[in-house]
Amino acid sequence: MPRSKRDKKVSLTKTDRKGLAWKQRFVDDIRFCVGKYPNIFVFQVQNMRNSILKDLRQEWKNNSRIIFGKNRVMQIGLGRTKSEEMEAGLHKLAKRLNGQVGLLFTEKSKEEVLEWAENYWAVEYARSGFIATETVTLPAGPLEDFAHSMEPHLRSLGMPTKLEKGIVTIYSDYTVCEEGKVLTPEQARILKLVGKPMAKFRMTIQCSWTKSDGFQLHVEDGINDETQVDSAVEEDAEEMDEDDDNEDEAE
């Protein structure tokens, strides 16, 4: 019997990964933005969602650039010390690149960006581990928005459901979550299915650097600007994986 063409083994050693060349392009891209845009901001993200970040990039694409990537690689692009930085004071921005943060390069004024960040937020669905902001209870009765094929899945999530004449029905009142308690993966999934968003996507401007005013801190962080940023750069390819939520290659 002839061997199927689909029966092939693919060595994972042939898989392409982001390496030193990619990091160098990323660093060069940041340095290009430093020369192009007069104002730079370090922002922190709450309840990160890639879809919202893509929308923001589209909204700001005409006169700005949002970069969200590997913190230590971004530090190299800005300059980790006074001797490495392209412009005076940029190493102070590099010191604030810790945690889930990104860079905003823009032609918009500092006042305009700060006002926008203060008022911007977007409603999103909570994930597991999120603290419920309210108690959500589903009353007994039909769930006509769900197809009958969804009933087994809803039951597997813990909901007291059954089919009545082909309609998904809750046969007793069901409390999905309680205010102040941590959401489980099943609870987070149910809240999304029933259309109950609890989380808010927000961007907080931690600090800024402008060609006219230099560095300015907007959120106190207790960082000593006299100490140097750790110059070690991680080369672990696994941490540079494309599926990492805190990584987004430069566009």
UniProtKB/TrEMBL annotation:
Keywords: Cytoplasm, Nucleus, Ribosome biogenesis. GO terms for biological process: nuclear-transcribed mRNA catabolic process; ribosomal large subunit assembly; rRNA processing. GO terms for cellular component: cytoplasm; nucleolus; preribosome, large subunit precursor. Residues 221-251 are annotated as: Disordered. Gene3D superfamilies: 3.30.70.1730, 3.90.105.20. Its main location: cytoplasm. Residues 126-195 form the Large ribosomal subunit protein uL10-like insertion domain. Pfam families: Ribosomal_L10, RL10P_insert. Residues 222-251 have a biased composition (Acidic residues). One of its GO terms (molecular function) is RNA binding. InterPro entries: Mrt4, Ribosomal_uL10, Ribosomal_uL10-like_insert, Ribosomal_uL10-like_insert_sf, Ribosomal_uL10-like_sf, Ribosome_Assembly_uL10. CDD domains: Ribosomal_P0_like. Associates with the pre-60S ribosomal particle. PANTHER family: MRNA TURNOVER PROTEIN 4 HOMOLOG (PTHR45841:SF1), MRNA TURNOVER PROTEIN 4 MRTO4 (PTHR45841). Belongs to the universal ribosomal protein uL10 family. Component of the ribosome assembly machinery. Nuclear paralog of the ribosomal protein P0, it binds pre-60S subunits at an early stage of assembly in the nucleolus, and is replaced by P0 in cytoplasmic pre-60S subunits and mature 80S ribosomes. This is Ribosome assembly factor mrt4. It comes from Drosophila persimilis (Fruit fly). The lineage of its organism: Eukaryota, Metazoa, Ecdysozoa, Arthropoda, Hexapoda. The gene is Dper\GL16862.
